[in-house]
Design brief:
This protein is α+β, with helices and mostly antiparallel strands. The chain has eight helices and ten strands. α6 (about 195-215) crosses α8 (about 230-245). β5 and β6 (about 50-55) form a beta hairpin. The longest helix is centred in the middle third of the chain and has 23 residues, at about 120-145. The protein is elongated and about 70 Å long. Strands 1, 2, 4, 7, 9 and 10 form a six-stranded antiparallel sheet that branches. It has a four-stranded antiparallel sheet with strand order 3-8-5-6, with no helix packed on it. The protein folds into two domains: about 5-145, Regulatory protein AraC (Jelly Rolls, Sandwich); about 150-250, Orthogonal Bundle (Arc Repressor Mutant, subunit A), CATH 1.10.10. Pfam families: HTH_18 (PF12833). This is HTH araC/xylS-type domain-containing protein. Keywords: Activator, Cytoplasm, DNA-binding, Transcription, Transcription regulation.
């Protein structure tokens, strides 16, 4: 999806726990349908393709689709969804993917529902934004499948580096947090971010230094110390290499 969702209409967001005897054989859809599994087990079928249903599996169907689904009556499906109309197609191919962050998925679903039911302009706008984000999550899951718990752990370590770049991080510590060897962690990190953990940390420090120098009024010496540099000239060289300006020029 290379453009924002050009939403025209949307139905009220809905949660439903499928009845034990439930099955679904859809008539040709007249609009788009967002369909997200939050709990339970089942199976989905469309145009000869089958997908096991479990928490995190989400689909965006397009007009004309005729999906079919069943579930385990002892592990009943809990589904969140809504119909919507948009300019162009909002449905990926294949129609479904597995969203790895199920907690975020649930937050978006609940926020969409609560916002829409406020029945005021701001609530409607928030619900539309949640729908746009949910559709984007499905597209991302379709086009970037197979992310693992290790990928998420490496992502989390990168977030921590950006949040606290002045800390004295070591690759051994990072690798231990991800339950990987140093070599394994470095390979995974480079694959995900295009640079080594050490280079990523330097960039995070320079990004934060730029913010401190231009927004906080801190001196170059104080900024360098706050970010773990004991050698101010070395900090200044790294800063200029990455920004094209010396730290003193930022004041």
């Amino acid at each position: 999806m290379t453009h924002r969702l050009q939403l025209e209409t949307m139905s009220p967001p809905t949660f439903w726990r499928c009845e034990p005897s439930w099955s679904w054989t859809s008539r040709p859809l007249g609009d788009h349908l967002l369909w997200c599994v939050l709990d339970g087990r089942g199976e989905l079928e469309l145009d000869g393709r089958r997908q096991e249903l479990r928490p995190g599996v989400c689909a965006v169907f397009r007009p004309g689709d005729e999906p079919r689904a069943t579930h385990d009556p002892h592990r009943r499906l809990l589904v969140f969804g809504m119909h919507f109309e948009t300019a162009g197609t909002a449905a990926p191919d294949p129609r479904w993917g597995e969203v790895p962050d199920r907690e975020f998925l649930g937050v978006l679903a609940r926020t969409s529902d609560a916002s829409y039911r406020r029945a005021d302009p701001l609530g409607r706008h928030q619900a539309e934004l949640c729908l746009e984000q949910l559709v984007a999550l499905v597209w991302d899951a379709v086009h970037r499948p197979g992310r693992t718990a290790t990928d998420s752990a490496v992502d989390e370590i990168a977030r921590q580096l950006r949040q606290d770049p002045g800390r004295e991080w070591t690759v051994s510590e990072m690798a231990g947090r991800a339950a990987l060897s140093r070599a394994q962690f470095t390979r995974r990190f480079v694959k995900q971010f295009g640079m080594s953990p050490a280079q990523y940390l330097i960039q995070a420090r320079i990004d934060r230094a730029h913010q401190l120098l231009t927004e906080s009024g801190m001196t170059v010496t104080a900024t360098a110390a706050a970010l773990g540099y004991t050698d101010v000239p070395y900090f200044s060289r790294q800063y200029k290499q990455r920004t094209g300006r010396s730290p003193s020029q930022e004041h």
